[in-house]
Design brief:
6 helices; 2 domains; about 15% strand; alpha+beta; single chain
Length: about 180
């Protein structure tokens, strides 16, 4: 065999690889049919679950091969996530107009924006309130609490006002000590 491979100018491994070669698509049509049958019966199954079904059915196949065949056949499922409504628009409180809609910002401290979000920890949620300067996008105040109450937003506002108060005093060259912080609420 070595002599024949030398005369042909190929390696032994290349010769045996050539002999073992399968025609394209052979042996995969049965697998593809089985994948399609499972996908029709269980339309929400992804490639992992379909791979599990194939293994339970006696097939010896890699999960990456199942993914590739499902992608070729356009069988990958797209899960719709449940829409979670986080804003209560049906309240009786007054709704204020958006005064910042046409505002063209050209320096800091013209517009502050605020947001409240939750952060999932291992055992609980905490809420984060943030105030940003819209021009510089710098965080000027924030607060973190376990409960979603008005005190959370007020604490972030107090921090922002305190920082701005200190910033203005430093800009004007006045000493910080002994100057009262005005009431925020």
């Amino acid at each position: 065999m070595n002599r024949l491979c030398e005369l042909a100018g190929v390696s032994r491994a290349g010769y045996y690889r050539f002999r073992r070669r399968r025609p394209p698509g052979a042996d995969r049509t049965d697998l593809r049919n089985e994948i399609q049958q499972i996908a029709l019966h269980w339309p929400a199954y992804g490639y992992r679950r379909i791979h599990g079904e194939l293994v339970r059915g006696g097939w010896t196949v890699n999960h990456k091969c199942v993914l590739r065949l499902m992608r070729i056949d356009n069988l990958l499922c797209v899960r719709r996530r449940k829409f979670i409504l986080t804003t209560d628009s049906g309240h009786s409180l007054p709704i204020y107009p958006n005064l910042a809609k046409g505002l063209a910002l050209n320096s800091i401290d013209q517009l502050w924006v605020a947001d409240i979000t939750y952060i999932r920890l291992q055992l609980e949620f905490v809420y984060l309130a943030v105030l940003l300067d819209a021009f510089s996008r710098r965080c000027i105040g924030w607060a973190l609490q376990r409960g979603l109450e008005a005190a959370l937003a007020l604490e972030a506002l107090r921090m922002a006002l305190g920082q701005q108060f200190q910033y203005r005093l430093l800009q004007r060259g006045r000493p910080l000590l002994g100057m009262p912080l005005r009431r925020t609420v």
